[in-house]
Structure formats: C-alpha cells, structure tokens
Design brief:
31% helix
Length: 252
C-alpha cells in the first residue's frame, strides 16, 4: 500500500480537523484550488495540519472566490515527529530552501538554526523556512511538520543541551571515515537496543568551526562523525548524516 494517495491534491491548513467541521480556505488556497487546479464544489482533496492526521475534505464554494473545506473522513492517523533534531549554521536563501525541504522529506523532527563564528547568513527568515517545510510535506505525503526554532548562538545552544540526548557533530577531521561505522561506535549497533528517542545532529558553516567552538564541542560531549573521504558542502553534509542516522536507527 502506498504511503499516501499521490493522485489526490493535498493542502496544509492551520485549523483543527474533525468530522462535522468546516474550514474557510485562505484567499491563496482558494485561488490555487479553484483557478490553478480547476477544482469545483463537490470535489475532494486531502488536508492535514500536523496534529490531527490526514482528512479527505469536500470543497464547498460560495460565489467566485469563497471556498470552504469540509472534513468527510480521516484517511491516516497522525504520525509522531521524527527523532532527529538538526542544528545547522544558516545558509543563504536558495541553499537554505533546499536544505529545509530535503530535511523535511527525510523525517527531521526539529530544525534549529545556530549562529557560529563563520556563519554566512546573518539573518534567518523563519516564515520562509516554514513555508518550505509545508510545501515539502504537502508534496511528499508527510503528516508531521518539524518544529522550527528561533536562531540561537552556538554557545547558548550547547549550554541548554540535554546531556542525556546524543549530539552528533559532523567533523571532517574525525577519526573514522565511514559514517555508519562512526555512528555505531558512538551510539552502538542497531541491534544493541532501542534507538535513541532523540538525537541531535550539528552541521557547521562553510568556513568550518573555530578552535574555540571545537573546544566547546569537546566540553559538551559531542560525538564526532566523519562523512567519508570527500569534503561536502554544508547542505550536503547534513543530509548525508541524516540519511546515515535514518538508515541505522530511523523510521525506514
């Protein structure tokens, strides 16, 4: 059975979803559904909000622009958020868009921008990050949207980190070049017990970490992982590490 019906249109809403409810579509959603997709009253689409699962909703039109979504039946129950918290030095616009979309597709449960010594982007557009997360979830049948944190200075993020949660650091100078072997050395093999309920993944900027930051990682107990013999761009390194984590302890 497919994860979700790829033949049906799918949209995200902020409102609650329940039988007997009625959701007024935003102007943008109404324009997209009625004018771009050419749907009409009585047609059905899939709707989700990140909390109440996925619902098949009937379109109800009133006039040329007003549109309501009426939940008819739940097609899938809500899934829990992913266990990976992705901490990253912010990237410039297009590359950040790409990173967010792919991280959501791969099941990251929380996105946490951290400001480092060599961070390229000075500002982070959280609304744009959320829009990219929603678009990826809509297109890929995902039910749980990641939490998106306010940007935080790296030292504050480390100070607030729960010592019981493993924190993996992508480090091209780490001892073991095979990422899966490195992860098993740090977390144990997948058959050694239940996978971590949560794991942090820390990816740095293009300029790398400063000496002071590396010392702070050691003090915080970060577990270093090398992602093979090649130097990867920031967005590639993070996604490669997510793939390795998911393959060994994730929700595949």
């Amino acid at each position: 059975m497919a994860v979700h019906d790829f033949n049906s249109q799918r949209v995200f809403v902020e409102a609650g979803l329940a039988a007997g409810g009625r959701i007024d579509a935003t102007r943008e959603q109404a324009n997209y559904l009625l004018n771009v997709l050419r749907l009409r009253g009585g047609d059905r689409i899939l709707v989700f909000n990140g909390r109440d699962g996925e619902w098949l909703c009937t379109l109800e039109t009133s006039g040329k622009r007003d549109l309501a979504l009426v939940p008819a039946e739940q097609t899938r129950e809500q899934t829990p958020p992913g266990a990976i918290r992705y901490l990253f030095a912010p990237l410039k616009r297009a590359r950040l868009d790409y990173m967010v979309q792919k991280a959501v597709e791969m099941g990251v449960g929380r996105l946490s921008p951290v400001m480092t010594r060599h961070t390229v982007a000075e500002r982070v557009n959280l609304d744009r990050m959320r829009a990219n997360a929603i678009e990826a979830a809509e297109q890929c049948g995902i039910l749980s949207l990641p939490e998106i944190d306010e940007p935080l200075a790296l030292e504050k993020a480390l100070a607030a980190w729960d010592a019981q949660v493993p924190l993996i650091l992508c480090d091209e100078a780490a001892e073991v070049a095979n990422p899966v072997a490195a992860l098993e050395r740090r977390l144990g093999p997948p058959d050694a017990g239940a996978p971590p309920r949560e794991v942090g993944l820390l990816v740095g900027p293009e300029g790398g970490w400063s000496e002071g930051e590396m010392a702070a990682f050691d003090a915080a107990g970060c577990r270093r992982v090398r992602l093979g013999p090649r130097v990867l761009r920031t967005e590639t390194a993070g996604l490669a590490a997510v793939a390795a984590l998911q393959a060994r302890w994730g929700d595949y």
